[in-house]
Amino acid sequence: MPNMKKIAASAVSAIMAVSMLCSSAFADQPYEGYNYDWWGDPVPSQTGYVVDRVVTGLDFGSGTRYNTDAQLKEISDQTGNEVTKEVTIGELKEPQDLFIDRETQSLYIVDSGNNRILVTDVNYSRTFQVMDYFYNPETKKYETLKNPHGIFIRHVEDAENENESTMIYIADYDNCRILGVYADGTVFQIFERPASEFYDADVTFQPNKVVVDVAGNVYVNILSITDGAVMFAPDGSFSNFFGANRVEQTAQAIANKFWRTILSREAAAAFIQAVPMEFNNFDIDDEGFIYTVTASKSATTDIFKKMNPAGENILINLGFSDYTYGDMASYYYKNQTYGSQITDVDVDEDGTIRLLDYANGRIFEYTDECDLLFIYGGKGNQKGLFTNVTAIEAYNSVVYVLDSRKNSITTFKRTEFGDIVHEAMGLYNLGKYEEASGPWQEVLTRDSNYWFAYIGLGNSELSQGNYEKAMEYFYRNSRAGYNRAFKQFRMQFIRDNFNIFMIIVLVIIVALVVLSKVKKRLKAKKAGGNK
Amino acid sequence: MRFDLDMPAWKWPFYVARHPFEGFEDLRWKKAYNTKVSMVIVLCFFIITVCQQVMTGFLFNTNYVKIFNIVPLLVQTIILFFTWVIGNWSLCTLFDGEGSIKAITSVSAYALVPYLITQIVVIIASNVLLKSEGAFIVFFQYLGILWSVVLMISGIKTVHQYSVPKTLLAMIFTVAAMVVILFLLVLLLSLFQQVYIFGFSIYTELMYRFSL
Prior knowledge:
The structure holds two protein chains of two kinds.
Chain A: H1 2-26, E1 34-36, E2 42-44, E3 49-56, E4 62-65, H2 69-79, E5 86-88, E6 97-101, E7 106-111, E8 116-121, E9 128-131, E10 134-136, E11 141-143, E12 148-155, H3 162-165, E13 166-172, E14 177-182, E15 187-192, E16 207-212, E17 218-222, E18 229-232, E19 238-242, H4 251-262, H5 265-269, E20 281-284, E21 290-293, E22 304-307, H6 314-317, E23 331-333, E24 336-338, E25 342-347, E26 353-357, E27 362-366, E28 372-377, E29 389-395, E30 398-403, E31 408-414, H7 416-429, H8 433-446, H9 451-464, H10 467-474, H11 479-496, H12 498-530
Parallel strand pairs in A: 4-9
Antiparallel strand pairs in A: 1-2, 3-31, 4-5, 6-7, 7-8, 8-9, 10-11, 12-13, 13-14, 14-15, 16-17, 17-18, 18-19, 20-21, 21-22, 23-24, 25-26, 26-27, 27-28, 29-30, 30-31
Helix pairs in contact in A: 7-8, 8-9, 9-10, 9-11, 10-11
Chain B: H1 12-18, H2 22-30, H3 35-55, H4 71-94, H5 101-111, H6 113-126, H7 134-160, H8 164-209
Helix pairs in contact in B: 1-2, 3-4, 3-5, 3-6, 4-5, 4-8, 5-7, 6-7, 7-8
């Protein structure tokens, strides 16, 4: 039967071809997605994001300086060098920060080593603008940057013209100042070291990051200050320190506190003062909450905070302060602790929080209530992995990660799985639990380990009144959810079985009464008999 | 006579639990120490600890029972109990204690009863209470522990005919003795393992040599 053989051979070759296709499809991700289960153990999970593009400065070609021709001539005269309009971008050098301006959809890259700011749009398709000379109308001179570390863009509605509606704040690290410039590069304000007696004379003023709130208050993150961010009023005067971390309660800190209460003031002064960790980076969301992260291998106190304008961490009040951010457990190997070091935070337009882990090059994506959604990225030399991450930004489900050693920007795009999760999350956040149950079911068919889907489904069942089903979904997924479902379930159970309960109680009472009577009679009989 | 003390052996633990101070005196007077009842209580201690691990309601269960392992529970209950008894006996015989091993075993086991009873209550309550009503559970837990500790002090005091401070001191030193005993036990185990491995390797060597 030659025919049969032929069919069999073609079938086998078809299977082989298909299996080869499958295996090649697996190979395109340099990292494996995982998540944490109820017990805090890592479990494999579908990845929510895959690497889309990796770009370096060499891919950018050339850009233009945003200064006018007249300005360029002046700059050339002042510096003695020929400063041209056209610039070849070339390799980035230790870039420290990224910023996405959602209104104009532009991407700002702080190219620290080259002392300049690069501006393009979120797809890198617009011609690059290079910002390195800033006209200062007061001194009639041009300001330059020296190792800038951070940038923030603020839009004001009631500005006189369009140019002045965009205010750019640059943390000029080695020049020890914050440079405030308009869109055309005209300096409108320079924030320098506060002269106030509140600011320690021994401490440098080297701004690492800068954030501006809606009212125009400028928050400056300085790595040598543990009291919090330096806060300037809109007029440039120092107002106070904002949002310090708490002191980590180590055994030493507690012992010091104990000694300080019993020793004299002079003797206590000899002890090392326990100081909180300074935070490393921050971000602000549309509602004015400031999010800070602290990059520490060992500390667990205030690794991530969400602060209201009064500087209070509201995550503590929501009961989330016990959460572990980043990887759950740090491990100890050859005198070194390996744990997550959260170096940057980004909060996107729908409140999703992304933390960037410097130690492992990973991105941890959380909901606005700090529930872990995805973990992606990793450390390594492969394309899509990182060696020295510094900044993260997200816009429109695309995540941008800056690597200051590879001098590259990596963009992640959301997978289908990630899209479904976020669709469900969106409905869930709007309180449309029932509508969200469809996408959540879809999530579970793709990844039955995905714990947050169970919470979504539990809430859906709870809102429909199926308390027992809700309890099933919440079991070993959410204590708070289970508690809510169980409360309703218990109430309903008692209501439904009220008659039976009453009968049981009555029977017990009657039985007790009868028993005591019988006992009494028996005793009386005994006593009578003894007489 | 206030109470009828001629009761079956299984009633003694409950009697003692209800009379923390005279109960043990009566027990000693009547010589009503019973090893069988004590063993049952120790077994209950183990079973209830297992139940506590796996049957406590989800809202109150903080145990890691993803992988259920019975060995640590055995160590925490039965082995701990017997180390306590042996440690206490070996210490107190040196310091004028009058208690025999049987007496110490009975007294220690009987003292556990309130803890076990409250633990059962807690396990049941944890399945019907809400998180906000957790204070009851904490209350019962502490009540049981406190009651058992009081019983244990009273029992050890009576059984050895000690004063209260001496009892407390003896109990603290018993804990130290337990640590020593467990340390020696672990040491012994690992030594025996080494010896076993040594013997086994000689055996395999001989087998190869003579190709048996």
